[in-house]
Design goal:
With 283 residues, this protein is of the alpha/beta class. It has two domains: 179 residues, Periplasmic binding protein-like II (D-Maltodextrin-Binding Protein, domain 2, 3-Layer(aba) Sandwich); 87 residues, D-Maltodextrin-Binding Protein, domain 2. Helix content is 41%, strand content 22%. The chain has twelve helices and ten strands. The strands form two sheets. The chain has a five-stranded mixed sheet, sandwiched between helices. The two termini are 21 Å apart.
Length: 283
Amino acid sequence: MTTLKIAGVPEHFNLPWQLAIENGDFEKHKIDLQWTDVPEGTGKLNQMLRNGETDIAVILTEGILKDILAGNPSKIVQIYVQSPLIWGIHVAANSKHNTLADLENTKVAISRLGSGSQLMAYVNANNQKWNTNTLEFEIVNTIDGAVEALSKGTADYFMWEHFMTKPLVDQGIFRRLADCPTPWFSFVIAVRDEILKEHPELISKIVKIIKARTLDFKTQPNIDQILADRYKQNLTDVQEWLSLTEWSQNKLTDQMLNKLQTQLIDLNIIDKKGTFTEIVKSI
């Protein structure tokens, strides 16, 4: 039995991993896959890959690509979720801000530097034709930290996944002013170079197992109720989320990577393109 560590956000996108582990899908192939929930998100996941705290990360596309170009010794091996991630733009319930225009030149709460919440703030600012050089950030680590920051007024708005944040909107803690979908596929699977070198067959097997899990995930009996129960969501919200979410069976191609990097350069998220072999490992 070979032990490998995997990490990702504690969100509904990753239930296929949880079910596969609980069902013994990996153990059958002599893989002890140990999952860690990382509520801090992409910035923390990048740090864990760099430090060897995890071997594999299920991570936001733009965040890992930017960090690989900055020296993270990892590669993307598979697209995990093909559909865009829908980021809600939230303010405190009693905030004076009522429109997106009101948020120009205000402070945005982010989980960490290099996180999706930071990078998507640039996407939103670009969409609104704001000066992205003047964006100000308040690091809050988690969604609980964002609740505190917006409630106390140390930050003005917070971008986080629409459906996972909706309970806070329903409870009257946040107001959502708008949504900002990613202009690209949302999640990928990234693996440390050292692990790719030592265990290429096992990584290939893990990818095949999770692809099989996601292929029929949406048609499993009562999957909407299982999601609602596990992630404390309203059933109707889960059903809407399922209708919008598509997992991927595809690898990242050179053409797709070139398009993605062009988009990220246009948004000033990266300042140069990397080569396919620097960023992607075909397994």
